[in-house]
Amino acid sequence: MPDLLLELFSEEIPARMQRRAAEDLKKLVTDALVERGFLYEGAQAFSTPRRLALTIMGLPVKGQDVREERKGPRVGSPDAAIQGFLKGAGLTSLDQAKIESDPKKGEFYIAVIEKPGRATTDVLAEILPQIIKTFPWPKSMRWGVASREAGSLRWVRPLQSILCTFGPETEDPEVVRFEVDETVSGDVTYGHRFLASGPIRVRRFDDYVPALERAKVVLDADRRKDMILHDAKDLAFAQGLELVEDEGLLEEVAGLVEWPVVLMGSFDDAFLDIPPEVIRTTIRANQKCFVLRDPKTGKLANRFLLTSNLIATDGGKTIIGGNERVVRARLSDAKFFWETDQKVKLEDRLEKLKAIVFHEKLGTQYERVERIAALSKELAPIVGADVTLAERAARLAKADLVTEMVGEFPELQGLMGRYYATLQGENPSVAAAIEEHYKPLGPSDRVPTDPVSVSVALADKIDTLVGFWAIDEKPTGSKDPYALRRAALGVIRLVLENNIKLPLISLLAKPFARDAKDVLFEEFLQIKKLVEAIEDSAFASLVSHPALPDIEAIFRQRQLGNAESLARIMYMRALDLLSFFADRLKVYLRDQGARHDLIDAVFSLEGQDDLLMIVRRVEALGRFLDTEDGANLLAGYRRAANILRIEEKKDGRAYNEAPDLQIVNDQGQIEEKALAVVLHGAKEEARKAVESEDFEGAMRALSRLRQPVDAFFDKVTVNAEDAGLRANRLRLLNSIREATRTVADFSRIEG
């Protein structure tokens, strides 16, 4: 079957856009073909700094023929209906239609419409110009005379040529003819900007790739990455050094060259006095170069590796020399920043934070530091940190934002603060916390373990979340401009990986109240108690609980004014933030392999705001259900719940009362009596175990129900003729349901 080759050749495409653009091109073209009924065997997309390329294998020569029968009006219908039918079906007279009989409705005209499949080249010529004109570049431009016209082509950089061929392997393919703003498609491409000259005529993908190779262009970005990495390691090894690998930089550099040539440069040993992270950041950010280290000491060497896009006639000496001059100048700046910053202590920089606005509605960085310090003091005893050290670390945590080094390289925030804090003699835990309070920055980033670092990291993230929730700036859909999902995940990982008990309702109440006004805190806590008295809400659905509107009534009854109304709003937002934490925790647990139904079963219980306890309960529940006792108890629970649901619906009432033990003793069967006794003991034992956070013990208590529940359903008829006995047995079934709710909502468990 024929194959398609498409190349869009332009000026240099920014490296960060190339891979996504190649995938977008593949998806847009293949989706458009499939939508029109053109299936294919495979597709591959490629990118270099100056081209996007796509090959689609196994396309048909033309689309499938279509045969459609369209039902028309009844025979003898008015002429207007007949003419409308003929026009819609593309017929010139009724002689071209056939007549079919319907036993109930009579005879009808039927138009048989046959459409031959369109040639693939025609379809491609139709869809490709539109795809090119509407291509989703993050940034694009117009150029030349055509740019004056509205609707002219926009491309990431000026588009210079389009190559598009289609045909089978055994024949010369044909050019798919189309035009995009005076750029006409053809079968010509171009090689390396400096190492090749003249156009290259191409037939199909199989000769396109080797033709580019001869013209010093490596089409596959992954192959360019492999070449750079292999040559870099070889050059480093030859000097007794090793490469400091950097996947992000490797990806970027592979998008800057079509024919990679790796060269080694050097810089003055004196610059090695600068922190290694600064050297690496300077060389990486400014020159897109890799750094090397001595494998014996683990320290950076005064060497770097650059990737050229040329095979230089002088072996690269001129290129190396030019890069060395730039690196020397950049490192000189970094050395100056490093030495200048050390002249001013971190605490002496705090006043400058008053000039940095964190957010127009949340104040300056100085005000934020005050909030983080206050919260760190409260968190310190909970996480086992020294209160004085936690507050000190929080106050210095943002001071490096006004240093020369961080001003030049913002990505070094925190790290430079640690260096400067160490140099000025701060406690090691304080210095570490200044760097680590930003962590974890993502799902693969490490989590701090030093208690001081943990307290400041939690305070920083909670302040961010509370602040943006307080001003109603929450993530919406895929948009999360303030990285609030990452902050919530950071809190979750800090708590879970450090085994910290952290009741969120109590923790979040004070920051939200403080935002409302400090003087309202006592009033706020009273409101909180009132709300808790009227609500029986699951952690995962706090915000939507029907009891929450009653808060309005509380405020009316108490005749509270505007300030207190603000406190009420803050509390509502705190509940909303708790719901957000619930969603993030669910995502985190699912990523860790936990069953989603077990997570829901635990979340649906009221008062679940301790992240660590939630996770331990989910884990214990999973282990219990994997046992024979757990599986059988779940089956017994479902049988009880099903009977209750049916009978409660039939009777129009709930059987929520405790069973009458006198009726059980007087009229009950042996199995019924045994279940009542075990239920009371197991429920109480499970409740106490949960209160003491012994979830395994709670599961063991529930496991005692397995045998008496099985025996009850085996020997006892629930729907007894005696109405009182029947009602009491239904209440006994409800007790089974209530006993299991001490650990989880079994109705949410699947399987």
UniProtKB/TrEMBL annotation:
Kindly list the biological process annotations in GO that this record carries.
Answer: arginyl-tRNA aminoacylation; glycyl-tRNA aminoacylation
Q: What is its main location?
A: cytoplasm
Top-rank taxon: Bacteria
Q: Which HAMAP family match?
A: Gly_tRNA_synth_beta (MF_00255)
Q: How does it assemble?
A: Tetramer of two alpha and two beta subunits.
PANTHER family cross-referenced by the UniProt entry: GLYCINE--TRNA LIGASE, CHLOROPLASTIC_MITOCHONDRIAL 2, GLYCYL-TRNA SYNTHETASE
Q: What is this protein called?
A: Glycine--tRNA ligase beta subunit
